[in-house]
Amino acid sequence: MEKKKEAVKNFKEMFSKSTLTIVTDYRGFTVAEITDLRKRLHKNNADYKIAKNTLIKLAAKETNLTELEKFLEGPTAILLSFGEPTICAKTFVEFIKETEKGQIKGGVFEGKLISKDEIKTFASLPSKEVLLGQIAGLLTANTASIVGIFESLIRDIALLTEEVAKKNSSGRE
Questions:
Q1: Please, which of 25, 71, 73, 113 could form a disulfide with 103 given CB 3.0 to 4.6 Å?
Q2: Are 68 and 56 in contact (CB under 8 A)?
Q3: Running DSSP on this structure, what letter comes out for residue 111?
Q4: Lowest-pLDDT range, 57-61, 70-74, 120-124?
Q5: Is residue 42's pLDDT more than 70?
Q6: What Cα–Cα distance (Å) separates residue 88 from each residue in 1, 55, 65, 79?
Q7: What's the rounded Cα separation, in Å, for the pair 48 and 33?
Q8: How far apart, in whole angstroms, are the C-alpha atoms of residue 18 and residue 13?
Q9: d(CA 133, CA 143)
């Protein structure tokens, strides 16, 4: 009984800290494969926990993640991302493709229920750092083109002013 209470407490704590929670079916994975998956996920600040559905339900109820109950049937493992969620989702999706085992049941991202298809789409997105780099590149490129436009305008105004000055000076002679 004490172990169950401790497990629920640990899940509550992890749920409250996670940026993305994915409910999975781990059937078919060997112990070695799960160990490999956990190593990959730990590199990205995530964890993969196998637990009884009743314990997960209790922890979910106490952390406002009751939506997870929809996915808690059969053997269940929870992927909890504490860092960049797209990288963790991508890691798991790639892993199930490699092993041809396991399945995504669904998940919760920022308090909202997401389907397995949404998780797969999420996994295909670039990471936050890559997106920020792309935005910075676009801003730099746009800034350079704006500077070029202003330089061109200034040059045109200078030429026009010079031509007007020549015309005015030739008209006075």
A1: 25
A2: yes
A3: T
A4: 120-124
A5: yes
A6: 32, 23, 19, 8
A7: 12
A8: 9
A9: 15
d(CA 35, CA 53): 21
Quickly name the fold that domain 2-125 has.
Alpha-Beta Plaits (3.30.70)
| CB 10 within 8 Å of CB 3 | no
Closest to 78 (Cα-Cα) out of 125, 124, 31, 15: 15
Phi-psi region of 40 (alpha: psi -120 to 50; beta: other; left: phi over 0): alpha
What type of residue sits at position 157?
A: I
Which residues 6+ apart lie within 8 Å of 118 measured at CB?
A: none
Q: Global pTM? A: 0.71
Count CA atoms within 13 Å of residue 54 on its CB side. Answer: 3
Query: Nearest 5°: phi and psi at 104?
Result: -90, 130
Q: So where are the chain's domains?
A: 2-125, 126-173
125 Cβ partners below 8 Å, 6+ apart?
86, 131
Query: Per residue in 70-85, pLDDT tens?
Result: 899 999 999 999 988 8
Transcribe 45-102 into DSSP letters.
Answer: TEEEEE--HHHHHHHHHHTT-GGGGGG--SS-EEEEESS-HHHHHHHHHHHHHHHT--
